[in-house]
Amino acid sequence: MSRGSMLRKLAEGIVPAEFIKYVPKGFEVIGDIAIVNLPRELEDYRFKLAEALLSHLKPRIRLIVRRTSPARDPNRVHSYEILAGNGGLETIHREGGCVFKVDISKVFFTSRLQYERSRIASMVKPGEVIVNMFAGVGPFSIVIAKRVPTVKVYSIDINPDAYRLMIENVKLNHVEDKVIPLLGDAAQVIESHNLKHIANRVLMPSPEHAINYLAKAVETLKAEGYIHYYDVAHPKTDIKKHLENRVSRIFDELGVEWSITSSRIIRSVAPSKVYACADIFIVR
Ligand SMILES: C[S@@+](CC[C@H](N)C(=O)[O-])C[C@H]1O[C@@H](n2cnc3c(N)ncnc32)[C@H](O)[C@@H]1O
Q1: Phi/psi at 2 (5° precision)
Q2: Which of 40, 83, 162, 219 has the fewest Cβ atoms within 10 Å of its own Cβ atom?
Q3: Which one, of 27, 116, 136, 14, lies nearest residue 75 by Cα?
């Protein structure tokens, strides 16, 4: 049974029939925490619904929470209300042979990027040098390091909690020789650690920030290489054209040759907002 159908079935015993249409079509699981985003219409039923869900999902899930804020924080951190269960908001998430320690009240993390992390890792060749400008607790960097021999991934994040957890995750996954956690603003760290002209590939997995750091990403590349660029789009636009329009002025000013080798929608975040990715090949 899908998560949405399960929620709906549980809700049928708790929520009046006319409100069933507001039951969400799914929920996210991070480690042993389920994040259920209930709309305003289900406010009065949230604790009963969460208790029913927890009884159904125990022991794999120990805590049911809901987001109480959009991630407006510059570090993309949400606030949560605990609806059922015990314990804190720190958990261990497992994904494709990797483990990630996260504290969802202090750092950004989503399990919904599993496919994207795997897709990027599948493009990386042995021996590559990679700069991950917005690494969070390290999931993109660690998935690559676990899968590909002899890579070096410089992993930058500005959030001290993400940096601390990234260091722990690098150890937990035994990739200390491949992933180098760095704390600070991506542009400043690239300057201060001399990361210019060193990378075969630059990852920019922060749709809200990437455009402002694109010129710095180009400086980080060797004579040629890939940038995995993330941005926000409207679901009804031609995604490739939209991304081309967004990046073209910056690349043209820098005078580099570039082409988008592939583009895709990563996930929907609101009715009129999706996150999208372009894989861009650059010759400087
Ligand atoms: C959308 S999250 C992605 C994190 C990670 N890539 C993941 O998939 O879990 C964006 C990350 O960028 C970090 N960030 C925001 N501004 C930054 C900056 N100027 N330099 C470096 N990191 C930054 C945030 O702290 C956050 O962890």
Answers
A1: -70, 160
A2: 40
A3: 136
Please give the distance, rounded to the nearest whole angstrom, from the Cα atom of residue 1 to the centre of ligand 1. Answer: 34
Question: What sign results for the dihedral spanned by CA atoms 227, 272, 38, 26?
Answer: negative
162 lines ligand 1 (CB under 6 A): yes
Q: From the alpha carbon of 107, which atom of ligand 1 is closest?
A: 27
Domain boundaries, the chain: 3-88, 112-283
Mutate which of 72, 77, 99, 108 for ligand 1? The one with the most ligand atoms within 8 Å of its CB, which is 108
Which mutation among 93, 103, 157, 166 tests ligand 1's pocket best, with the greatest number of atoms within 8 A of CB?
A: 157
> Can the peptide bond before residue 59 be classed as cis, meaning omega within 30 degrees of 0?
yes
Closest CA to 227 of 267, 200, 265, 246: 200
Ligand 1 lined by 109 (C-beta under 6 Å): yes
Domain boundaries 3-88, corresponding CATH code: 3.30.300.110
**Amino acid letter, 21:** K
Cβ of 186 below 6 Å from ligand 1: yes
Report the distance separating Cα 2 and Cα 226, nearest Å. Answer: 37
- State whether CATH 3.40.50.720 applies to domain 112-283: no
Using the atom order of ligand 1, give the atom closest to the CA of residue 117. Answer: 8
Ligand 1 neighbourhood includes 205 CB (under 6 angstroms): yes
